[in-house]
Amino acid sequence: xxxxxxxxxxxxxxxxxxxxxxxxxxxxxxxxxxxxxxxxxxxxxxxxxxxxxxxxxxxxxxxxxxxxxxxxxxxxxxxxxxxxxxxxxxxxxxxxxxxxxxxxxxxxxxxxxxxxxxxxxxxxxxxxxxxxxxxxxxxxxxxxxxxxxxxxxxxxxxxxxxxxxxxxxxxxxxxxxxxxxxxxxxxxxxxxxxxxxxxxxxxxxxxxxxxxxxxxxxxxxxxxxxxxxxxxxxxxxxxxxxxxxxxxxxxxxxxxxxxxxxxxxxxxxxxxxxxxxxxxxx
Amino acid sequence: xxxxxxxxxxxxxxxxxxxxxxxxxxxxxxxxxxxxxxxxxxxxxxxxxxxxxxxxxxxxxxxxxxxxxxxxxxxxxxxxxxxxxxxxxxxxxxxxxxxxxxxxxxxxxxxxxxxxxxxxxxxxxxxxxxxxxxxxxxxxxxxxxxxxxxxxxxxxxxxxxxxxxxxxxxxxxxxxxxxxxxxxxxxxxxxxxxxxxxxxxxxxxxxxxxxxxxxxxxxxxxxxxxxxxxxxxxxxxxxxxxxxxxxxxxxxxxxxxxxxxxxxxxxxxxxxxxxxxxxxxxxxxxxxxxxxxxxxxxxxxxxxxxxxxxxxxxxxxxxxxxxxxxxxxxxxxxxxxxxxxxxxxxxxxxxxxxxxxxxxxxxxxxxxxxxxxxxxxxxxxxxxxxxx
Lengths: 282, 388
Known about the structure:
The complex is a heterodimer of chains A (about 280) and B (about 400).
Chain A: E1 14-25, E2 28-39, E3 43-48, H1 54-61, E4 69-74, E5 77-78, H2 84-93, E6 94-97, H3 109-120, H4 125-138, H5 155-166, E7 173-177, H6 185-202, E8 205-209, H7 213-219, E9 222-227, E10 230-235, H8 237-241, H9 246-253, H10 258-263, H11 269-272
Parallel strand pairs in A: 3-8, 3-9, 6-7, 7-8
Antiparallel strand pairs in A: 1-2, 1-4, 4-5, 9-10
Helix pairs in contact in A: 3-4, 3-5, 4-5, 6-7
Chain B: E1 17-23, E2 26-35, H1 41-53, E3 59-63, E4 67-70, H2 72-87, E5 91-95, H3 99-107, H4 123-159, H5 168-179, H6 183-206, H7 214-252, H8 255-261, H9 266-305, H10 309-319, H11 322-349, H12 354-386
Parallel strand pairs in B: 2-3, 2-4, 3-5
Antiparallel strand pairs in B: 1-2
């Protein structure tokens, strides 16, 4: 599938490889023969119409939904053939920011962030407390937040705490399901910066489902587009902008699309580059 | 993290370590290995030795050149050492660090914990205050329920002349859920209770040669007390809990708030239909329970005492009057109101967390079973006084 985009350097390691994925509910197929690669160290933005199955794909990769056919390899392991030990290890090496946060409602923010560390590592309570405060500061929350319960948090705070929990084990891959939806533009920008910083410093691989064009431009190395039950295009955003796929065109060049960004004077450098449109349409 | 391998890195951890060297510039702490959170306790040990090795030094140089990997947890330990050594009066500087280390130390640094301002009260004071709070809360609970009863009565009176505002469909649905679906379990447990009471009655009364009076025992006890009591307890557990859970989870997901802003009263939409369904269902179930208890009594007295069904029924006719049966039945609607009210108030008490939902469901069941038994006792005293 990714042959459509310029082939990445062959030495780049693929951390998630999806091949021929078929997922459906009853007779209705949501994915049919979907291929996708996620390379180490990249930020992959994942877009698609609402209801196209972005969350379904994420949940399938995470092993939360059953697939009908195809293979999913994570860190070189086939997720259908994990031994319990490998399963535990994979669980330590990825973190997920669910769309609604999915914080444990009966634990405080501090305990939520400590939960993965407490379960997987034998750290002392003192260290756990210190690391929880650090993670809170990392996502830009004041220390007072630590003793609040999830029901006392605003939407933006919930996302941040959830990210802090996802980062608790310093995972190699982070899945972000619409991380900036429901945030004000400033917080959303901060969030993008945060992801960018973490990606640079930790070599984090990020799989981000998003509708936020600003995020796509600001931090995504590649963008994959879901449509017609497949990934219809994947590549740097500069290429996708030049695609003549009707959905992509209306997505990027519609009222809320790039034209808006251009009008605001925030001309993506990518647009200027003379990149030939690839066969984005399949 | 430029070094990339297909195999898991976390499992091949090189232990994080520190070595001290004294030079004329000061104490040099050379860090080596992988300072990552996956190292767990080993990272803690290394982090602690950063502090202990340079405790007395005036100048400390942290040499990061030998560091293989560092993540946010590693950065926290290193930055903590820097912070605390600097706090103790030493000059701390870094050497051999890479740009990404710098960035990580800056972004994921150490934040000294704020001093806890919480002062724990003395043990006895805490105990006394807990007792006081519990008693106060029970009082508040009682007034809440009375308050709610008032609201329900007012709402009921308002709705009574307007039958078109009654929610017939949910009412019938709840009647099926609370009534019809409970029939098998109610019949079963009451048959068993009737059988057990009769069996013990036969054994004990046989000592006086009065085994036949076991029929009177199960007749009077079953119809007056046990039928309605067992049914109410069963319904408190089965239906009360489900009402609390339904309303509680609606409360959690802000569905109750959505109703309110649509100018719909949750009392009218959710609670009155459930309450009415319960008030209709419980007497019907009590009737069935009474019959099941008599059936159990009949069965056991036939087996253990050789009393044939015809004889059992004749004896039963002599032992009970219509009043005996009515005393039990009269209590049922009151029990239904108590169960429904407690379940609804507890449901409304649910806050945001899953834990509070669980707590409210438990307390709904415990409170309604308790109240059902207390009510039964009060009724027993009342009927004894009025000689019914």
